[in-house]
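Input.
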Amino acid sequence: MNKFITIALTAICMACALQANADNKKDNIYAFGFSASFNDSTVYFTDIQPIPGATIERKTHFLQNRDTYSVQLKDFLADQGAPHRVCAVIYATKQKDIEKKFTKLRKKYIKTGKFDIKYLAANEFKFTPLPAEEQTETAPMTKEAKKEAKLKAKDAKKKAKIAKKQAKVAKKEAKKAKKTTTEV
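Output.
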C-alpha cells in the first residue's frame, strides 16, 4: 500500500511538471532590434535574425526574457559610442510576419524624413540566444500576493502623504522662527 501511494504521488508530480512546461513553448523566432534616443535623431535597425530555442509564454505570447535581448543591443550601441538609447526587440514566429513589421516601422521613420536611419548588419551585431537555464519563468501573481502588494502601495502612499504634511509644517515653523529672530 505504501509503495502504491509513493508511485501515485510521483505520477501526479510528473504530470504537474509536464503541465507547467506545456504552458510555455520553445520556438525558433525571427527578430530585429530597433533603437532610438530622445537626445538625437538617429535611429538604428538591426537585420532580421533567427533566434533558435526562444521561449514564448503561452497566454500572453510574449517573448520570455525579451528585456535581455534589448539590453544586448543597448550595450552594443553604448560600446559603439551611442549611450542612453531606448532599445526594443520586435519578433515573430514566421519570417513573413517579421518582414511586415520591419517594413512598416522602417517606412514610418523614412516617411517623416527627420531621422538619420542606420542599419546594423548581422556581421556587426547579432543577438545571442539565451541558454535554457537562463530563461526564467515568471509565475503569475496570486490573489493574495496582489492584495498584499496593493496594501503595501496604499500604506506607502499614506506614509508619503504624512511626511509631506510634516515637511510643510516644519517649513512653516522654520519661517516663523526666522521671522521672530529678525524682529528681535
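The mean pLDDT is 81.
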